[in-house]
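Researcher: I'd like a candidate sequence for this fold, 154 residues long. If you have to choose between options at a position, lean toward the conservative one.
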C-alpha cells in the first residue's frame, strides 16, 4: 500500500511540474498567443536584424529600430498570421542566402510575453511558437498592413 501511495505521489509531482511550465511564455510554446481568447496589449517589432558580420575598424553597427503598436485588432491579425504558418517538412531544402530577421515581442493584458524570431530570407523560418514554422509571407503581409516594418522577400 505504501509503495502505491509513493508512486502516486511521484506521478502527481511530475504531472504538476509539467502542467506548471505550460503557463509560462518566452522561449516557446505560443499557447496564449495562438489561443482564440488571446487579449493583446502591445507588440514590439524589432528589426531589421542582420547576422553578425565582421565590423570595420572604427565603426559600430547601428542598433535595430523598434516599432510598437497597441492596436488590439492589428496585433490579433499578426498573431493569427504567425500561428497559421505551416511547419516545414523534415526534408525541406533552403537557400543559404542571408538577409534581415525580425524579433516580435507580444505582450498580453496579463503581462505574459511571447517572443518570435522571424527570418526574412531562405525558408523564412519563424521560431518561438513551439514547433518551427516557415514560409512567413502571411506574417510579413500582416506586419505591413499594420504599418510595421517587415522584409520584402524575393
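Model: Candidate sequence:
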Amino acid at each position: 500500500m505504501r509503495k502505491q501511495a509513493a508512486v502516486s505521489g511521484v506521478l502527481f509531482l511530475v504531472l504538476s511540474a509539467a502542467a506548471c511550465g505550460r503557463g509560462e511564455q518566452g522561449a516557446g510554446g505560443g499557447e496564449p498567443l495562438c489561443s482564440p481568447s488571446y487579449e493583446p496589449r502591445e507588440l514590439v517589432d524589432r528589426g531589421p536584424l542582420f547576422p553578425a558580420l565582421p565590423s570595420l575598424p572604427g565603426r559600430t553597427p547601428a542598433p535595430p529600430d523598434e516599432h510598437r503598436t497597441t492596436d488590439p485588432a492589428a496585433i490579433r491579425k499578426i498573431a493569427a498570421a504567425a500561428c497559421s504558418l505551416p511547419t516545414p517538412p523534415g526534408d525541406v531544402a533552403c537557400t543559404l542566402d542571408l538577409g534581415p530577421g525580425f524579433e516580435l515581442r507580444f505582450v498580453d493584458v496579463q503581462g505574459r510575453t511571447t517572443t518570435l524570431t522571424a527570418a526574412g530570407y531562405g525558408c523564412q523560418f519563424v521560431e518561438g511558437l513551439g514547433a518551427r514554422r516557415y514560409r512567413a509571407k502571411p506574417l510579413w503581409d500582416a506586419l505591413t498592413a499594420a504599418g510595421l516594418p517587415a522584409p520584402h522577400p524575393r
